[in-house]
């Protein structure tokens, strides 16, 4: 009687949402644009009830308009009660172009999550993912969708770095379109890639990692254009916001994405990582990650134990029973710092303590910061808090069960992690911060003071740490003699601070410090070993850290015991190899065995990148093997491997030293870009990177390869930039390396303006580091010559005689003499016909003909005469590299075995090399640059009688590059003493940007103007007012306090009023200001 329900309700087009239920009265439905009418199907529950359609003409066939149609159905029961069901029907407009969903197959999530009105998305993919399928969906089937202008069913091929996918949806009537974009970023391929074609290798090499570029970006208007991998240019510009190559300050929008290059590079053919093991496959760069996963030549982690057990040292070691047990005269003791850790209260169950520790360790890992992150954590929630809690729980477990070796070991690993937490991630307790590591600002301030003291004692520029300490010491003695004890105390603080800081750079001292985390970890591993000498794991870690301490004999004992227990374990093999190499009587050890052990360790790492990431398995190698890229000890071991490989004639399937160096530089670059903190981890990785770079540069120079000169110069430039931006403070080794590298660049292209300029900079730095002695003067003269040559050769071709400024330099003469000696020595006995028949003529012809080959210089003429010598010298080293010609023509044993595998590839790469036209950059015309002028100005300013000339070149720099602060500051400083107004004039020429864009560097200039004018009481000077305002605006009014006081004292009230008005952007007549002026009695 009173039932006014519907029994069912549906529409001929469009589905009700939610599904119909008698008791629900509100629904929505969407119909496509082509639908004109839709018929309602419905029935009342009670036969006696009636219903009316409250829409349109009341018919059950409803006419639908575009947009929202509110269809209501009123059901009236027999007793007159009623109920209204309503359906909000949205009819899609035929003009609408919109996706209803967008997915990318196989779990690639979009960021942000899909929403129809959001048009730009990003998405990340693994390095082995070569293509993706995109599934766009529309509500209206009449809409058309296309992915990158093709049918949606086609997969999209991914570039090696970034791929932009464009999804276009067109409205039903074809009139409107909407574009959605998805930017897919692939992870970088973890290992250094070798392109088949040398030209590709040259073009696609990232100057930082010396591996293939990843997400290439160039610097706007850089000349010549230099391209970097995005993560590495980010890393370098975090250190200094300048173009690493030209040192020009970077402005907004300096980053230019090189998508076209990325695409071209992704399609370039590359060799398999395992080509040295026989894989001949070539593939597109974009596909190498996927190939490596499937490659049958991938080294197996299942090593043959015979390789170890059959070696002499192994037999010797395990033959005598006295050796099998390490005499650990170690008594277990709980150290004070350990006692402080045993504070997990109320818990006595070891298992539960371990579970807590593991939980904390996980939290620590999850919360580690990334470079550039702002580190802010709630109290007790920082990663370091969790790591400490993990240590506390393990230590407390040890208190319960002091003879459980595993617990000691786990605590050791946690303590070792502490080292990375502090050094790599910069995590520190607030309290720790103050005395050891000052805040950044304070430490920069101290450094400034130290440099000022250095200048006072004849060390200009940035002297080495040794010289800085020397200067501080001299100052300290002076002050003591003068009886200025307060000042002397302060200088002593500086001295201690600096020596501590400098001491940090010495890797070997680190582990021996009782307070140091690594040392504590070592003690715990020792405890574990003493409780259970039969664990390969404890022995491995013990040995690894002992090696870091330089105790190679002791380390070897532990590692050999570990290897005896587990002869197939690649990590133990690697570190054993390293220990054998470092052992005092290393000569007795077979180098071949060491190479095998080290290479197997490296190969294990290489293969690990290409298996599915099972974290448990990775744990096997030094406590978290995902560490390999930040593990400087491992990377250094690989450097030793490469050095060995280039010395000995290798066995079957040996890697080329070049490939190992490339892998090391690639991994070190990855590690560096992960470091959050400029600590010891970063310094060590930096030095590994520099060493690998240097070795590869030397290798390139030794190779017989036409057209390589620009490549050499590019690498020299990259290495110089890395040295300059390195986190390692200036020291003798670095300065020497820098000078050497720059000389190499000049030797390659003696008329290259850029190379000469870099040499000048290196010589200037050398001169500064030698204070005021004879070497310093010689270096300074050379620097001037190099800069002059660089300036003179701007805009001229790089072919021809070496410039006269070069031939005057001692090192150049020495080099020529050395080359001559070599030629004389080797020429007579060694005219090998085999070499001459193929290599020499091909090379010679090319030289004679190649207009672009930098042939006629002094250098190349020596190269020419000494060519046969070089071939012989480099034959063994290069045999396994890409200079394949030697392999084919030479019959000595060195290259025989390894050569076979890839002879074809090498032949083809050689061919392409010989056919190669001189690259455009080989005859590149050097552009004018301010850098050599700035360098020359600095060099000239160092001696009293050339100051005038220095001023001239500073002026030139200012004309050429008005945005470079240094030129103004240094020129003004030169002038200040004799003519303060001239200094003001120099500063005044600086093109200041609008206030809101001014930086602290700009404020330094305005501040200097104000300082000089105020000091000389030149209140009427036209520059005073604008610079007071500019300085006050950028630095805050507080910075002007002392000037305002001085001006008040001189009753300069009109000036004061204008300064205040200017800083507040108000007129002097402003009422509020007038009140203030009256209060101040300035009116
Ligand atoms: Zn392969």
TrEMBL record:
Coiled-coil regions, chain positions: 462-489
Keywords carried by this UniProt record: Coiled coil, TPR repeat
UniProt TPR repeat ranges: 536-569
A biological process from GO: protein polyubiquitination
Annotated GO MF terms: ubiquitin protein ligase activity
PROSITE patterns assigned to the protein according to its UniProt record, in alphabetical order: TPR (PS50005)
InterPro entries referenced in this protein's UniProt entry, alphabetically: Cadherin-like_domain (IPR025883), RNF_E3_ubiq-protein_ligase (IPR051438), TPR-like_helical_dom_sf (IPR011990), TPR_rpt (IPR019734)
SUPFAM superfamilies with a match to the protein in the record: TPR-like, TRAF domain-like
UniProt entry tagged with the keyword Coiled coil: yes
Region described as Disordered: spans on this chain: 821-858
The keyword Hydrolase is annotated on this UniProt entry: no
Domain Cadherin-like beta-sandwich-like intervals: 17-90, 99-187
Basic and acidic residues bias spans: 821-830
One Pfam family hit: Cadherin-like
Name of the protein described by the UniProt record: Cadherin-like beta-sandwich-like domain-containing protein
Organism: Onychostoma macrolepis
């Amino acid at each position: 009687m009173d039932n006014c329900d519907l029994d069912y309700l549906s529409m001929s087009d469009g589905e009700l949402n939610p599904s119909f239920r008698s008791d629900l009265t509100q629904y929505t439905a969407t119909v496509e644009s082509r639908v004109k009418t839709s018929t309602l199907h419905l029935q009342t529950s009670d036969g006696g009830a009636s219903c009316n359609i409250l829409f349109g003409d009341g018919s059950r066939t409803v006419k639908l308009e575009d947009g929202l149609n509110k269809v209501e159905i009123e059901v009236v029961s027999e007793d007159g009660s009623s109920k209204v069901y309503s359906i909000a029907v949205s009819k899609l407009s035929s003009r609408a172009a919109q996706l209803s969903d967008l997915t990318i197959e196989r779990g690639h999530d979009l960021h942000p999550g899909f929403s129809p009105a959001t048009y730009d998305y990003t998405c990340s993919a693994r390095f082995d993912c070569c293509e993706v399928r995109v599934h766009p969906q529309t509500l209206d089937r009449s809409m058309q969708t296309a992915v990158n202008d093709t049918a949606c069913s086609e997969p999209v091929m991914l570039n090696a770095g970034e791929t932009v996918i464009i999804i276009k949806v067109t409205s039903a009537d074809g009139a409107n379109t909407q574009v959605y974009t998805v930017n897919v970023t692939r992870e970088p391929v973890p290992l250094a890639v070798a392109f088949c074609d040398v030209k590709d290798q040259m073009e696609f090499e990232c100057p930082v990692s010396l591996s293939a570029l990843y997400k290439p970006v160039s610097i706007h208007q850089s000349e010549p254009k230099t391209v970097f991998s995005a993560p590495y240019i980010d890393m370098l510009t975090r250190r200094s916001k300048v173009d690493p190559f030209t040192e020009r300050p970077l402005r907004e929008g300096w980053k230019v994405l090189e998508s076209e290059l990325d695409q071209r590079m992704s399609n370039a053919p590359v060799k398999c990582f395992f080509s040295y093991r026989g894989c001949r496959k070539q593939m597109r760069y974009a596909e190498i990650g996927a190939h490596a996963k499937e490659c049958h030549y991938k080294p197996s982690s299942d090593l043959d134990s015979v390789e170890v057990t059959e070696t002499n040292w192994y037999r010797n070691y395990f033959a005598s029973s006295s050796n099998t047990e390490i005499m650990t005269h170690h008594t277990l003791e709980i150290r004070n710092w350990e006692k402080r850790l045993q504070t997990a209260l109320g818990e006595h169950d070891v298992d539960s303590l371990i579970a807590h520790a593991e939980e904390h360790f996980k939290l620590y890992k999850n919360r580690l910061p990334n470079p550039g992150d702002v580190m802010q954590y709630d109290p007790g929630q920082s990663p370091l808090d969790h790591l400490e809690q993990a240590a506390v729980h393990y230590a407390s477990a040890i208190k319960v069960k002091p003879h459980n070796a595993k617990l000691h070991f786990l605590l050791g690993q946690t303590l070792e992690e502490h080292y990375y937490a502090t050094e790599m991630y910069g995590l520190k307790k607030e309290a720790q911060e103050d005395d050891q590591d000052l805040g950044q600002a304070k430490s920069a301030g101290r450094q400034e003071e130290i440099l000022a003291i250095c200048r006072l004692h004849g060390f200009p520029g940035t002297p080495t740490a040794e010289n800085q300490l020397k200067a501080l010491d001299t100052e300290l003695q002076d002050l003591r003699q003068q009886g200025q004890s307060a000042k002397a105390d302060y200088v002593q603080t500086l001295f201690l601070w600096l020596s501590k800081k400098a001491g940090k750079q010495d890797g070997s001292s680190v582990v021996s410090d009782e307070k140091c985390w690594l040392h504590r970890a070592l003690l715990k591993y020792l405890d574990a070993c003493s409780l259970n000498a039969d664990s390969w794991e404890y022995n491995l870690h013990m040995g690894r850290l002992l090696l870091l301490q330089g105790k190679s004999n002791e380390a070897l004992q532990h590692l050999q015991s570990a290897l005896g227990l587990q002869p197939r374990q690649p990590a133990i093999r690697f570190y054993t190899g390293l220990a054998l190499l470092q052992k005092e009587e290393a000569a007795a050890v077979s180098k071949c065995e060491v190479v095998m052990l080290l290479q197997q360790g490296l190969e294990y790492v290489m293969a690990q990148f290409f298996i599915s990431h099972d974290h448990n398995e990775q744990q096997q190698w030094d406590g978290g093997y995902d560490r390999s890229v930040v593990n400087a000890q491992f990377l250094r071991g690989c450097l030793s491997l490469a050095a060995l490989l280039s010395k000995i004639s290798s066995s079957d399937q040996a890697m080329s030293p070049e490939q190992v160096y490339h892998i090391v530089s690639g991994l070190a670059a990855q590690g560096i870009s992960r470091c959050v903190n400029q600590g010891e981890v970063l310094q060590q990785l930096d030095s590994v990177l520099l060493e690998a770079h240097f070795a590869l540069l030397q290798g390139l120079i030794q190779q017989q390869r036409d057209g390589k000169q620009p490549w050499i110069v590019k690498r020299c430039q990259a290495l110089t930039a890395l040295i300059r931006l390195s986190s390692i403070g200036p020291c003798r080794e670095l300065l020497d390396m820098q000078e050497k590298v720059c000389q190499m660049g000049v030797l390659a292209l003696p008329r290259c303006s850029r190379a000469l300029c870099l040499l000048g900079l290196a010589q200037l730095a050398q001169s500064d580091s030698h204070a005021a002695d004879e070497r310093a003067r010689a270096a300074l003269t050379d620097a001037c010559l190099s800069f002059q040559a660089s300036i003179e050769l701007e805009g001229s071709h790089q072919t021809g005689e070496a410039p006269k400024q070069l031939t005057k330099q001692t090192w150049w003469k020495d080099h020529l003499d050395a080359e001559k000696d070599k030629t004389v020595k080797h020429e007579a006995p060694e005219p090998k016909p085999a070499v001459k028949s193929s290599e020499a003529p091909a090379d010679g012809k090319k030289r004679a003909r190649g207009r672009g080959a930098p042939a006629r210089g002094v250098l190349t003429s020596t190269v020419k005469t000494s060519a046969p010598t070089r071939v012989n010298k480099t034959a063994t080293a290069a045999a396994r590299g890409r200079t394949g010609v030697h392999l084919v023509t030479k019959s000595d044993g060195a290259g025989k075995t390894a050569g076979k595998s890839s002879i074809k590839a090498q032949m083809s790469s050689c061919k392409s090399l010989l056919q190669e036209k001189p690259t455009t950059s080989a005859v590149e015309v050097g552009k004018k640059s301010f850098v050599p002028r700035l360098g020359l100005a600095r060099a000239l300013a160092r001696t009293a009688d050339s100051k005038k000339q220095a001023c001239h070149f500073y002026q030139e720099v200012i004309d050429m590059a008005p945005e470079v602060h240094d030129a103004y500051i240094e020129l003004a400083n030169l002038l200040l003493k004799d003519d303060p107004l001239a200094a003001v004039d120099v500063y005044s020429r600086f093109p200041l940007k609008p206030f809101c864009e001014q930086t602290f560097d700009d404020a330094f200039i305005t501040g200097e103007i104000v300082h000089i004018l105020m000091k000389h009481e030149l209140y009427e000077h036209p520059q005073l007012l604008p610079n007071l305002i500019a300085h006050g605006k950028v630095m805050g009014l507080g910075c002007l306090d002392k000037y305002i006081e001085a001006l008040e004292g001189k009753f300069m009230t009109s000036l004061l009023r204008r300064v205040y008005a200017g800083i507040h952007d108000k007129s002097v007549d402003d009422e509020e200001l007038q009140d203030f002026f009256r209060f101040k009695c300035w009116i």
